[in-house]
């Protein structure tokens, strides 16, 4: 019996030493990139920069739009709330684009059918840029949790509001657009 206890203790000690060795070998030094996780894009923080293509071949870089208020809307053609709020987004864009407002409709193409997205945009005669997040990098960068999700970004590139879910009321879109434009004037 004593021999079994001794073997068990020896086995437990060996497991402990192996575990401690593993912890020591795989430790991450403070200040390394593992500790520099991307903060969740949220109000009062800088909007993460991205570059995405449009179906017509144009390429949009959020950084290039500094100096103008931007509404970034993440959507998919299969998403009923996305479909419901798109006409209001188009009306707000049409009304405020002369004031400098930019709307970027980022289609989560990695979760959508490209042709269905293009057909949907064409059926509504959307005039703002439709961008294609084909790999899902921008959706990940913005830590997208639900669709639609809309980021209201001021002319300095700071997120002023985030609306997760929808459909968003046209009145709310107008108020947020006017706030963004008012900061530029």
Description:
- With 185 residues, this protein is an alpha/beta fold.
- Helix content is 38%, strand content 17%.
- The strands form 2 sheets. The protein has a 5-stranded mixed sheet with strand order 5-4-3-6-7, covered by helices on one side. A two-stranded antiparallel ribbon has the order 1-2.
- The longest helix has 24 residues.
- The radius of gyration is 24 Å and the shape is elongated.
- The protein starts with a helix and ends with a helix.
Short overview:
Helix content is 38%, strand content 17%. By secondary structure, it is an alpha/beta fold.
The string of secondary-structure elements, in order, is HEEEHEHEHEEH
Number of DSSP strand runs: 7
Helices, by number, come to 5
Intertermini distance:
86 Å
Helix content: 25-40%
Q: Which ranges are low-confidence, i.e. pLDDT below 50, for 5 or more consecutive residues? A: 31-36
Helix-and-strand structural type: alpha/beta
Largest sheet: 5 strands, mixed
Shape: elongated
Let me know the average pLDDT: 86
Our Rg estimate from Cα atoms comes to: 24 Å
């Amino acid at each position: 019996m004593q021999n079994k206890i001794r073997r068990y203790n020896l086995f437990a000690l060996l497991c402990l030493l192996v575990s401690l060795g593993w912890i020591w070998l795989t430790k991450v030094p403070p200040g390394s990139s593992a500790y520099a996780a991307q903060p969740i894009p949220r109000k009062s923080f800088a909007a993460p920069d991205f570059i995405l293509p449009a179906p017509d071949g144009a390429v949009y870089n959020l950084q290039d739009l500094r100096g103008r208020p931007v509404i970034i809307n993440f959507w998919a053609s299969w998403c009923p709330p996305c479909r419901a709020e798109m006409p209001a987004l188009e009306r707000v864009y049409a009304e405020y684009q002369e004031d400098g407002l930019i709307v970027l409709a980022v289609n989560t193409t990695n979760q959508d059918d490209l042709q269905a997205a293009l057909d949907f945009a064409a059926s509504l005669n959307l005039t703002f840029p439709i961008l294609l997040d084909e790999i899902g990098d921008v959706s990940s960068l913005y830590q997208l949790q639900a669709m639609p999700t809309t980021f209201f970004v001021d002319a300095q590139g700071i997120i002023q509001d985030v609306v997760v879910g929808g459909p968003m009321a046209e009145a709310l879109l107008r108020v947020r657009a006017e706030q963004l434009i008012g900061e530029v004037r």
